[in-house]
């Protein structure tokens, strides 16, 4: 430091000390204020993120489940029928009043927009299979598909042929076995198991095989030797798990009886029992009409499809032949009917 610069620094320091001792002169700021005006602003504290899953715990649980699965070859696809054996697509087996696809979109998308109570028309998906962020729009619905982690036709070859039909329909609509994903990627997967297909996003592969194993274990399916070897190989290298896939629970067995009615080939003994109507409002119809005290028409399709109610003045009201009549739409919903879409 040259002598001239040294004298300037000493003079500035003395000036600051004088201000500090005597208080600021009117119109001046304290030394602390001067420092604050030139110092860079502090960075905000980093946002808290959820604690990562216990990878060792999830892997250990998956290994235990995998070891408990029977190992055998695939049965032929003979007799496989999507609607006849697994029910109409996205049946409301849990009686939420909305189809399974819309329920899964609500669960997996963010910034969800709906047309009504049920129909999702827009949202954003953080796609687990590709790692990309996708924009969902109803007019291009196939861009985001709902994947069966264990494909239906694959399950048919791994033991589902021997299941009661209600178990198969529940399996086809079980949130445990469903993920919203990139459509083209899902199409490329087809009915493959983890021995023939894995998500393109490498960091998600561990989560994927753990979830596949959890589904197979929950439904007492078998796996082939190549599948077991592929799953084991991924588990051996796991360093990251999204969520806790090994702990997910399947739909309860109590769902099966109702779910059976959504399959084309369901017998009367397998058909769902109609839920009890709400105490307020259910009345018997008279031909095509409902009494004035209960004008809402409840329609029960013969094929076991969704129970739908129609309010006076709605588009299909006049043409609907009701099986039940309700005083209000709320009473119909409480009895297991949904609004038309």
Which helices and strands occur, and which strands form pairs?
Layout: H1 3-22, H2 31-38, H3 55-67, H4 82-86, H5 100-108, E1 110-114, E2 120-126, E3 133-137, E4 144-148, H6 152-157, H7 165-172, E5 178-182, H8 183-189, H9 205-218, H10 225-236, H11 256-259, E6 296-299, E7 308-310, E8 324-326, H12 329-334
Antiparallel strand pairs: 1-2, 2-3, 4-5, 6-7, 6-8
Helix pairs in contact: 3-9, 3-10
Overall description:
With 341 residues, this protein is α+β, with helices and mostly antiparallel strands. The protein has 12 helices and 8 strands. The protein has helices spanning 3-22, 31-38, 55-67, 82-86, 100-108, 152-157, 165-172, 183-189, 205-218, 225-236, 256-259, 329-334, and strands spanning 110-114, 120-126, 133-137, 144-148, 178-182, 296-299, 308-310, 324-326. The strands form 3 sheets. The protein has a 3-stranded antiparallel beta sheet. It has a 3-stranded antiparallel beta sheet with strand order 7-6-8. Strand 1 (110-114) and strand 2 form a beta hairpin. The longest helix has 20 residues, at 3-22. The radius of gyration is 31 Å and the shape is elongated.
